[in-house]
Amino acid sequence: MDDHSRTIIHIDIDCFYAQVEMVKNPSLVHQPLGIKQKNIVVTSNYLAREYGVTKCMLISEAKKVCPNLVLVNGEDLYDYRQYSYKVTQLLQNYTDLVERLGLDENYLDVTKLVTEKQNSINNGNLVGYFYGNTDLLCECGCTERLKVGTQIAQEIRDLIYKELKLTTCAGIAQNKLLAKIVCTKNKPNKQTVVFPNSVNELMLDLNLVKNIPYIGNATVEQLSNFNVKTVEELQNCDVNELAKVFGIEKAKNMLDFSFGRDTAPVKKTGKPQSIGLEDSCRAITAEREIESKLQQLLLRLMVLVKEDGRIPKTIKLTVRKFNNSNPQSATRETRQCNVNTALFKDLELTEANQAKLMKIIMTLFRKVVDIKRSFHITLLGLSFTKFVEKLSVRNTLVSFLTKDIEVQSFIDIANQNSRSPVREASTSSYAYYDNVDSPESLAKRGRFFVADRIAEFSDSPIKLGVATLRLNSTESPMDLGEKTVPCPPDNDEEVFRALPNDLQTEVWEDYRRKRERTIGNSKSFKRSKPNSILNYLNKEK
Ligand code: TTP
Ligand code: MG
Fold first, then answer.
1. What percent of the chain is predicted at pLDDT more than 90?
2. SS3 at position 408
3. Which CATH number fits domain 8-201: 3.40.50.300, 3.30.470.20, 3.30.70.270, 3.40.30.10?
4. 274-461 sits in which CATH class?
5. Is there a shared CATH topology between the 8-201 domain and the 206-258 domain?
6. Whose C-alpha lies nearest to ligand 1, atom 26?
7. From the CA of 263, how far away is ligand 2's center (Å)?
8. What is the pLDDT of residues 139-179, one digit of tens each?
């Protein structure tokens, strides 16, 4: 028997980018509105949809079906991202089990909330629409739970509207897959629940396997080679036969999905694992032009980083080279290297630090592209792929002493290149895990997301042990003199060696400081000279 114990809500914002533009400029509300990116209308308001404008339609086509279409450029995702995070934050008021899916969808596991509500109210009215019929409803208790789920969904949607003026759709079901599917049944600004007795009808209603959200294009194609195109045909497949092609795990999952079964939990969403930007361009052939493009990308990227609030640790360059002899074979190449976190003091890049970063970026570029030969670059991308949290040290002893520490440290380690008031915690304080749409399903929807992978970080506040702040250096960069700077173990040695000596030193120093903080605090602490305020305080303890 299927598991009906959970109550899951899927929330999808109506015509998301278009709504944000309408909220920003209410005069657009009564006009057919399309959001354009390059030559495509990525979405449109529901008025424009009445004329036949569809998602991802060419602008020329859209103008044909709707000559009055008003177009707003939607290439800058800043506002969309802001609204997206605000919606998720509102949802997190209800439960911390909120999982983001792209920019405009969220799953909530409200099972606990339902139980609490059931204890306080005894009127389980259904709110909104239901899919299928209400004959032969299950008696395990899920019917009442899902009804309470519909009340919670309505409350949440009302709150989103009240706070942000955005309308949404919701699907309520016993698992994520069904909640997502049933969410689309009544649009816009409506919600729909499906009870277990109508699950099979809902699945068969999808008709084609390609309409099952979690089954990607490649799988759909492989299945069609076996003449399996419809959900019903998939349901009739033998799991062992499917396993021969897809492996037993995937075969079982596919069969489960075809029957509307999905045991995946709602995973708490945190911050993205990487923040990046890409620009495709006409072929660039000059290094100076590359540098100027990358500089623009870097500045735009820093806006995103500031918004995110974490300090980048690793920078990655992506390059797509045009191949004259085989235009179809353009491939992407990437190179990455660690950067000194001190470059991002207060998440502002000073001109000097920007120049340092550009040196690193151009070094990476020269590793991917032989600039002595002619080259044609058709895409450039920059992303930060690892981060450390900027610590909030308010109300702590350290905060109280911060000024002293900085003065002290300046005296103590005058040889060090730079000091950042931002301190990082051991990465072991965080538990990261992926929680997004599979790349397959993102590809299926043909979307491009700036923050390409979303991850979770634990909610435990970062605790800064006083003893972890070592101010005395036993290994100053001056000790290294003109000697070869050691390459930190997690760096690409080749890229590292190509960096100018001062940058190598910075990267090494950054690594060394982190290493000292994270390992052997007690041991290294004992070795340090007791000439700082913190050392003094520690001894007093
Ligand atoms: P969707 O949720 O697919 O569409 P929507 O919110 O605009 O409309 P609906 O009312 O049907 O939910 O996508 C969310 C946003 O993502 C959309 O507003 C624009 C953007 N988007 C892209 O950038 N590229 C795409 O290919 C699609 C489909 C959407
Ligand atoms: Mg939407």
1. 54
2. helix
3. 3.30.70.270
4. alpha beta
5. no
6. 447
7. 24
8. 899 999 999 999 999 999 999 999 999 999 999 999 999 99
Which residue among 33, 55, 169, 190 is best mutated to probe the pocket of ligand 1, counting the most ligand atoms within 8 A of its Cβ? 55
Give the pLDDT confidence of 521-534 residue by residue, as tens digits. Answer: 544 433 444 333 33
By DSSP bridging, strand 40-44 and strand 33-37 are antiparallel
Q: Which segment of 105-109, 268-272, 424-428 scores lowest on mean pLDDT?
A: 424-428
Ligand 1, atom nearest to 187 Cα: 10
Ligand 1: atom nearest CA of 46 is 10
Phi, psi of 99 (to 5 degrees): -120, 125
Distance of alpha carbon 237 from alpha carbon 38, whole angstroms:
43
Q: What is the pLDDT of residue 113?
A: 95
Supply the DSSP string of 84-98, one letter for each residue.
Answer: HHHHHHHHTTT-S-E
Going by alpha carbons, the residue nearest to atom 25 of ligand 1 is 447
Catalytic residues: 105
Determine the Cα–Cα distance for residues 233 and 219; give it in Å rounded to an integer: 14
Q: Which residues of 163-186 are buried (b: 16+ CB within 10 A; e: fewer)?
A: ebebbbbbbbbbbbbbbbbbbebb
User: Ligand 1 center to residue 165 CA distance, Å?
Assistant: 18
Q: For the segment 57-76, what is each residue's pLDDT rounded down to a tens digit? A: 999 999 999 999 999 999 98
Domain boundaries, the chain: 8-201, 206-258, 274-461, 473-537
Residues with CB under 6 A from ligand 1: 12-17, 42-43, 55-56, 103-104, 187-188, 445-447
Q: CATH number of the domain at 206-258, please?
A: 1.10.150.20
Does the pLDDT of residue 39 top 60, yes or no?
yes
pLDDT at position 448 is 32
> pLDDT category, 118, cuts 50, 70, 90?
confident
